[in-house]
Amino acid sequence: MSNSKKVHTKFGEPSTEESTAANSAEVVQELDQDVQGQPSSSTNSKKRSRKRNKNKNGTGVTSEPTAAAASAASLESQPSIPETKKNKVFKFDVDEKKEEVTESNKIENTAEEESTQEKKPNDKEQVKPQRKKQKTHKVVEFFSDDEESNFRDTRGSNQPQQSLKQRASQLLSTRSNLPVYKSREQIMNHLNKNQVTILIGETGSGKSTQIPQFLLEQIPRDSKKQHKGIAVTQPRRVAAINLATRVAEEHGCPVGTAVGYSVRFDTTATHKTKLKYLTDGMLLRECILDPELSAYGVIIIDEAHERTVLTDLLMGFLKELLVKRNDLKLVIMSATLDAERFSKFFHSAEILFVEGRSYGVDRYYTKAACDDIVDSAIKSIVQLNQGEQEGDILVFLPGQEEIDKAVGILERLAPDLPKEAPLIVPFPLYASLSPADQAKVFLPLKARRRKVILATNIAETSVTVPGVRYVIDSGLRKVKLWRHSLGLSTLLTAPISKAAAMQRSGRAGREREGKVFRLYTESDYLKLPDQTEPEISRVNVTSPVLMLKELGVEDILNWSWLETPGEDSLISSLTQLYQLKALDDSGKITPLGHEMAILPLEPQLAAILIKSHREYHCLSDVIDIVSCLSVDNLVLNPSSETRDDVNERRRAVCGLGCRYGDLIMLKELLDCYLQFGNKDREERTQWCKDLALSSRGFRNVLKVRQQIRQYMMTLTKDKHLFQDIENDEEDDIEYGSKPMDIPAILKSFLTGHTTNTAIGLPDRSYRTTTNGSLIAIHPSSLLFGMKKDAIMFTDYVYTTRGYARNVSVVELEWLQEICGGVLKVNAANNEN
DNA sequence: GAGCACTGC
């Protein structure tokens, strides 16, 4: 630490915090990477020990009335709070008592490093016996390297029942050392006595794998009586799949039997499944089919602190369902103190705390605010590389632009740096990077090299890179903000919250003690909001509102929102649904609205799809385009060196796209992809590479397409809806041979995008028809720089100026025909 | 003539 002080002259004194908010779902995501053949972390600690003090009863669990959590939440402003209480909860911010807390952590560090030496006595008496106890469990951790390789072996192989059982009993010793396992009795007593339980569990507590199993083990295995099942929701698909796989193994059964999962396009659960991991979106789908959720006796909402729109909706829905179903139990699992809100929401349900296992992270702040974040990040990386011991560096930057810039600078800089320090090897990491490029961050490096991963928010929860010991945090992120008054969303660079800063720094403490270098001052840190604003308060809620209408909620404004999106936002969503004819004059859902709610698409796209069938008779082409639109990162951003070539090739393939715009381009690209067929896989992959398209993206497009076709056949009760297409596919007739009815396709889209239109001006800029603001065609569009009478776009982004993305050419007459009312507004604007 | 964070059905 003294060494680092010398080197990091820019930073102030270190302070220490516990890493928080990371959770067991992330742990399994590491596992996923291993399953996919990526190297596991060889440095993964064999000696993981707990740093957290236990409470007096020694179980690691405390059942507290909510007032205790409230006092814990306001920790900063109550320096007189007893030490024992502080240790029960997360320390979001210990800066005001930095010395005190650093001191206590120092003692703990010492105890760990000198494991044979008896700990010096201190004033925290209750800590002492517990620490002794934990030392005996040091070798045990959630996933050791050995565990993971064994896990790989058994997964997917058809092992006899006996060996599955053997494996399960082997795993039992690992399980039984998890903090949650030790508190089993207490937790289960509480769960059995209460309808709602809020559980805060830190990283590595094992809550996501163990608590569902405790509940499962209460159900007799071979009971003839029908027992209601357990559902565990996750915000991410990969987490649901991996947790189910792991838990099935611990339970000694193949996935898809007693334990299974259900995510879009991939379900292993059957009617026999008693414990099901599923995405929150999937459970909401089940709500539509069965509003009583009668298949379940217990619902567990995991990762509730992430506050995704879908989790929030589920909690509101379940709150109402609990009144109707006295036998239903609900467990809300969270990793942060935000649980206080959950408790209040569920009529002051009690909060249980379970400790976790993670390492301390020293914090450093800059002495002055940084004006150029990329420059500051580079300087910090170089300093750190020279002054600190081995360990990889994870740098959080807001977006692709900053990351690419920083990677470029580092690549030029690295060979000229002093040779005493390890060679810096930079890796970018963001979602629109191709999977192959993303995977590079997991490759091990030769000796005397240091990995520097420059990442967006993707590394905060979705991707866990092993080996990271240092985090550099710009304190910035990109946020999509929905402006309901404009009907447009903007993408802004904004400061993160304290909770997010904590989450980011926690990435340095997953395997051993780490350090975080924050590229902002401590006083700026203190000004950050405690929690990240929940998604629901900043996004377009048209889709959630339609779902609630479908579930029979009449008074949307006064529904049991965990957090209301706001009256303006709700009213604009209701208005939009009314305009799409999903709601009638009295605000009730229409038959069309019902069909839209069933389709797994944004209401706008659903409306377009149905219109394309009933009015414009071009359903199958529109399904193809809509499928492309609903897959992320299909058309990738080419790197700056290849950009011109890629654009050239795309234009060559998309003759019609060049004339009519990006929607038609998507159809042409898909047709091209399909023409390769499965015989020419290699060629097809090369083609995708040449055009900077994602093969994985296309595979998803085909899944979505298949799903939507299925839904449309059900909705129209017409089994032969796609018969001619399917015959073509069987006969291997060339794709794209049937000419598209382009006006019909574009008119279909116009019905859903009346407000996303603009009129061309002489200088190649455009004026929107809604409020007359200036907008330009985004450079990523095939129509970039072209002058057209009128355009329609699916997306709007404001950066240096307003940009329309995914642009298509429309005719002025169509605007009059389809969005007459909108044009009048435009005329009024132009007069002003 | 410029550049989009992350999820879900």
From TrEMBL:
Residues 156-171 have a biased composition (Polar residues). One of its GO terms (biological process) is positive regulation of transcription by RNA polymerase I. GO terms for cellular component: nucleolus; ribonucleoprotein complex. One of its GO terms (molecular function) is ATP binding. Residues 1-171 are annotated as: Disordered. Residues 83-106, 116-128 have a biased composition (Basic and acidic residues). Residues 45-55 have a biased composition (Basic residues). It catalyses: ATP + H2O = ADP + phosphate + H(+). Residues 380-552 form the Helicase C-terminal domain. This is RNA helicase. It comes from Wickerhamomyces pijperi.
